[in-house]
Design brief:
Order of helices and strands: HHEHHHEHHHHHH
Strand order of the largest sheet: 1-2
Radius of gyration: 27 Å
Shape: elongated
Largest sheet: 2 strands, antiparallel
């Protein structure tokens, strides 16, 4: 009898499947038959609770949603964090990226991505680099889709959503602190760069060292006399 009682799959749904493998006996034992029956009951309950006929659905809508969020500047790490995976830092679990590589995904996962998409799709993300990559790869943004789950639909207009430009004199001290830590913050204002440079020089550092760390042009953000007054 395969699998027999020495097989760890004995008495499980996996054991039931093993009975029908090439080296199986095609006659499930009573414990494996009972485990399979319970599995089918649990499967039916989950489908009933989710009001679906299939626990797995095509991933096309999910992939389109993730790509659409990238098209407006949301990084995969941002999407991962919104889905409850990782802390938003680069090099995280790559959960959203892995979803785009599947043909079918669990219905509950598709529903979770759809909820996150609704929350994020009308707000531009922080990454100009992600928007640029998406544009090169022709990933359609949210406004280009009418029925994003329809496999036969083509995006229309390829409408792009640009991040809102901040006033040059806007000053966010949190951004300044991040610049002083050497972080390259997207869409920093002139006021924030000048304030970061002023503080950097006040600490006894050289202008060139901060410019080199952040990729700034030398001399552009040196504080003027009226700024110091």
């Amino acid at each position: 009898m395969l699998p027999d009682e020495s097989d760890p799959r004995h008495g499980t749904n996996a054991g039931h499947r093993a009975h029908y493998e090439s080296n199986g006996d095609k006659t499930p034992c009573d414990p494996c038959r009972a485990a399979h029956a319970e599995y089918k009951r649990q499967l039916w309950r989950r489908k009933y609770a989710m009001r679906v006929s299939d626990l797995y659905v095509p991933s096309i809508g999910t992939t389109r949603r993730i790509r659409a969020l990238q098209a407006i500047g949301w990084r995969l790490s941002d999407i991962d964090q919104a889905l409850g995976h990782g802390d938003g830092r680069k090099g995280g679990p790559n959960y959203a990226h892995n979803l785009t590589r599947q043909d079918r995904i669990h219905a509950s996962t598709a529903a979770k991505v759809a909820r996150v998409y609704e929350q994020m799709s009308m707000t531009p993300g922080p990454s100009a680099r992600t928007r640029s990559i998406a544009k090169k790869r022709k990933w359609a943004p949210p406004l280009a889709w009418n029925n994003i789950d329809d496999p036969n639909e083509k995006p229309t207009g390829m409408v792009t959503v640009k991040a809102a430009r901040r006033p040059h004199d806007e000053l966010d001290l949190t951004v300044v602190e991040r610049l002083l830590e050497g972080q390259k913050v997207p869409q920093t204002t002139n006021a924030e760069r000048k304030e970061a440079m002023r503080r950097w020089l006040a600490m006894g550092n050289s202008e060139r060292s901060l410019c080199k760390a952040l990729g700034w042009k030398d001399g552009r953000y040196l504080p003027r006399d009226e700024d110091a007054a």
